[in-house]
Amino acid sequence: MLQIAKQELEREEEERGREKQRYLAEHCTPLALASLPLAELQELCRELHARVDRVDEERYDMQVRVSKNINEIEDLNQKIFDLRGKFKRPALRRVRLSADAMMQALLGSKHKVSMDLRANLKQVKKDDAEKENREVGDWRKNIDALSGMEGRKKKFETSGAGQA
Predict the structure, then answer these.
(1) Could you tell me the pTM of the whole model?
(2) SS3 for 18-55, per residue?
(3) Are 104 and 114 in contact (CB under 8 A)?
(4) I need a labelling partner for 123 at 20 to 30 A (CA). Which of 16, 58, 97, 154 fits?
(5) Which residue, 100, 140, 92, is CA-closest to 117?
(6) What is the rounded CA–CA span in Å between residue 15 and residue 81?
(7) CB 44, CB 36: distance < 8 Å
């Protein structure tokens, strides 16, 4: 199979070579330069030079047109994007999956161990919340007790006595 494909490629390459030779023979006639006098050779060189200049000018013009068209296409694409407006993201819906279902969706059939995420959570004691409530109550009592100048003196004396 590979040999047949290789042979086909070689045939196509040979055919391209023959086609190129045929095209050059039709369009580029061979020049008899040895029999021409010096003046005619100079005139032939001037003609060939003029042809090369014309071809270069045409190539440059084509490049300018192509670059102009590319810029115009970019501008039109930008206008299209601006006319469409901003892209609106669709509202996402919340999907509730258990940890097992999530792991199975991610890992496929590999996942066999059930995973309990709540087992690793820290237990919170309700006694801590009650202590905070008592401290809040004590704070309010202290404010009432320490209001006025006597309260400030008591506060100053207790803080100073605590440091000494």
Answers:
(1) 0.36
(2) HHHHHHHHHHCCCCCCCCCCHHHHHHHHHHHHHHHHHH
(3) no
(4) 97
(5) 100
(6) 48
(7) yes
Q: pLDDT tens digits, residue range 111-147?
A: 565 666 666 677 776 665 566 555 555 555 666 566 6
pLDDT tens-place string over residues 80-121? 888 887 666 677 777 777 777 777 777 776 656 566 666 667
Rounded Cα–Cα distance for residues 134 and 127 (Å): 11
**CB < 8 Å & 24+ apart, contacts of 69-75:** none
Residue 115 and residue 100 in contact, taking contact as beta carbons nearer than 8 Å: yes
Helical H segments across 31-125, by residue range: 38-84, 99-107
Residue with tokens 């969706």: 105
Q: What angle do CA 23, 26, 27 make, to 5 degrees?
A: 85
**AA identity, residue 106:** L
Tokens, residue 156: 């100053």
Pair of tokens at residue 103: 């792991």
